[in-house]
Request: fold
Amino acid sequence: MRGRPELRTSYESDQAPLGTPAKRFWFAALLIGAVLLPFGLTSELNALIATAFISAIGAIGLNIVTGYAGQVSLGHAFFLGLGAYTGAVLSGPTDRNVVGLGLDMWIWLPAAGLLPAIVGLIVAPVAARLKGLYLAIVTLGLVFLGEHLFREMVFLTGGVGTGRSSAKLEMFGTRIDQRTEIGSYTVTREMKLYFVGLVVLLVMAVLAKNLTRSKVGRAFSAVRDRDIAAEVMGVELTRHKVIAFAVSSFYAGICGALLSTTTGFIEPGSYGLLTSVNFLAMILIGGVATLSGSLLGAAFVVLLPRLVQEIPHFVPFVESGSTGGLITTFQLETLLFGAGIVAFMILEPRGLFGMWVRAKTYWRAWPFSY
Amino acid sequence: MKAIARWGRIVALVGILALVAAACGGDDAGPGGGDVKTGAGITTEPCPGSTHTDRGCIYLGVLSDLTVGPFRALAVPLTDGQKAFWKRVNDGNGIGGKYDVDITKYTRDNKYNPQEHVAQLRQILPNILMLAQSLGTPPTIAARDIMEEENLVASPASWWSGWSFEDLVIESGHNYCTEAMNGLDWFAETHGKPDTLMAVHYPGDYGGDSAAGVAKWATANDVAFPKANDVQTAPNATAGTQDAPVAAILRVKPDVVVLATGPAEMAEIVGKAAAGGYKGRFVGSSPTYNPAVLASAAKPAILGLYNFVGPWGPWGTNTAAHNAMKAAAGSKLPANEGYTSGWIWSYPVKAVLEKAFELGDLTREGVRAAVEQTTVDYEGALPAKKYSGDANTNVVRQSLIGKADEAAPLGSSVVKDFFVGPTAKDFSFTEPCQKL
Reply:
């Protein structure tokens, strides 16, 4: 439909990703930008953006179960932790005080998704019987259970205050996250982390996009919008809730394992309720039931603390240290985070994605937008 | 199509510019003048607030537990002690008369959290030459890969036995493992060889290392140390109370209990065990003591049953290092011995910087290379130390024994001065006591 890209003549073309030339162009431009970006940034920012990319994988996972299928889950942190430890145990060195099998990334990365997915499958039938608040409470229970297990299973996790090394990004015997020199140019480990994050995110996002526009994805939306109506139409509720949980847990596991590799270390205390809330915030701020929203939300939540650290340079009463001043950056960050969630819920429930859509619509109709 | 082609050209141009900019970036810290090679973390401008306009500035990073972590009570005076140390260096000759040292600008809070530690390290990394303080074993280990790639040398604020095997870490004093051996050797000498002993400890680098030392002492001295006497506990923040180890102590009634916990946990264990009728003795690792415990109900039990093993003399000790520290601190006493530790942990950093300066290479590579050739002079606080050669030769085996003492300036005094117990003396260090 050259010249009239908005005219759809088939369901496929309506559902096709990157359906218009403009979308294709901007996607290509964004991708090229994303590939070039790390060469112009400091290592610290590269690591931070890599963290945002990887967090976006987890946010997409949560968006699948909570955004698309409408099942509120507070248990995301548990699956993140499960993925991180699966990766660490499979990849870790064999001669330490914690269990390690010394396996390659092509084994541990899929396994770090599969094990949480299996655990997701096991708990999902219970969760499928519940909805709303009750479901939230059950999944909350998972987080506490997980925290306890991670704390107590010292032979796997190292225990509180000790922790263990994370999985190693090692493919076919070669570390892919170590600095290399190409001629006189240095490719830092942070650049490589960035690219690992970008590639895995792209793959996972494409898979998620395809899932959401498939029969299963449409069933998710039907279940979310009105479960009884969906059932009447022949959508199997339990089956689709279970699928949503398993897929979401898979994403969380991959995210957890990769996230731990950005710091190289796993502390058992990192998978508490706050982590789950952080991921919920990502999808609420970014935009529920949108993939680009997951990415925007993850970027917002990951980059906000870093931005807040710059505030003391401009605002006199904010203190960067531990004492003095009216408020410390740490407190300010917590405040802004909470205020951000409240503001988005009230002013723009569709999140950053909604703001983007509004801006886009405004400029599309310009100068006749109102 | 034309529009797209034009955009393509612009994107390509931007890309090339980005690449060129990236390739040109990097070594923006200028050379420090003279014939000393310099790189990251050194400027020709004087340090902030310095009056030495003829000196450049060496920036060192500090990653410490300053606000919310479990060791903040020790870490804040520790960092103050380091600041005082470097002020004294700067007031004197600086490094080779050409550089002052600043540790304040890049002091960051690691919250004793490995993730936070690595994130903060990445932030300050382009601007520092080395780490004047890297607090905690797990955070420091988390940063090991980055340190290795960046040739970043660090002075650790912890006593894990594995540091003797790491060439980028310039540790001071004994480790938790030799500490436990010396504590038990001292106990055997003063109170008779124990028939039963117990270890109550946190897991991991600290408590695990200490318990490994107890096990090695037991093997070397032919004393039974069954699994049941190896009691693991956790900080009260996680465990709630220390009732479980207290029950174990009261059940087994060992002759001596080796403790490797926090001060509050130590006070609770010693107090409750004494209240339960326990008559044996406690030997604590150095982090178990903080004078604040003397304000607790456990005070009589601590004064009566408890000793700790120290890596160096407490505040009141009379050495050139301690006297210089007391003069630098002025009339105001610090909160605890963290200050002394901060002061003493700074000597290796100064020695390595001076060596690197002497060798004419103050880049990170130069500093790393200088470590091997450095001999640290602790001004009498510790015997001179080298980092070259194997761990078994270089590991520090001396400890001293201290006790809680209300009359002493920071609540502790020395019972037995530096000694090497027979077990630690004969022990062969071929690997860390507790591997991590």
Summary: DSSP finds 15 helices and eight strands in chain A. Residues 237-263 of chain A form the longest helix (27 residues).
